[in-house]
Amino acid sequence: MSATPGALVLHGLTGSPQGVAGLGAALAAAGFEVEMPLLPGHGTSPEDLAGCGWDDWSVAAESAYQRLAARSGPVVATGLSVGGALAASVAAGHPEVAALAVVNPLVDPPAEDFLSTLEAFLAAGERFLPGVGNDIADPDAVEVAYDRLPVAALLSLSRGLVGLRPRLGDVRCPVLILSSRHDNVVPSVSSDVVAGAVSGPVERVWLERSRHVATLDLEREELERRIVEFAVRAVAGSELSGAPQGQEQPGGDDAPRREQRERAGH
Fold this sequence. Notes:
Layout: E1 6-10, H1 21-29, E2 33-35, H2 46-50, H3 54-71, E3 75-80, H4 82-93, E4 99-103, H5 112-123, E5 128-130, E6 148-150, H6 151-164, E7 175-180, H7 189-197, E8 202-207, H8 220-238
Parallel strand pairs: 1-2, 1-3, 3-4, 4-7, 7-8
Antiparallel strand pairs: 5-6
């Protein structure tokens, strides 16, 4: 390759880079320059997160991408949960992104009545909901995450997803979606939305033993292997002369829309 490839790795809402550190390390070991930012409002207190929202996280993801792109070759955007939505936003805004890999992404916009419910909570002075972290099957794994979810942050996220949804069609690079069968936080329909909306070729992997935080769960090594292999193929393909980004690359899936057929480990 003419330059070291880059990997943008984004954590989820209420979490931290600790939740995706293994993935970042696996990509670094494979020769990628890794950028793994701490999103605004995270790593301190739920009260800090209550003062942040979608625009803050989007700006942070964009800034991290710009830093990475300035010092690396082709960039792969990856993310867990809300990090997956932010990674998709980056890929939608940058056609030069080599590939997008998302793990249990949260992109499906909520219904209007859900937004109204959140607004009613805030009006009644209810600032926090129970935390959503640590949905993990592995009893020995622990995610560093807040124990409370700020209603204001969730409301801002929900509105941000409404804006993201029509932009998913601008994602023209290869896309890898990893979905847990037993996710107790984000329904798999959100992954279905990604698969059906993006314009690039899609591969989908089902994780049979993992829950929402699959990057820390029982199949984390398989997850890391899948993403690394996908990323290596994508950046190699993006540098081939005459192989435009967003089209099927050599070594990729020969059936771009087989998202419902591929299974983890097979």
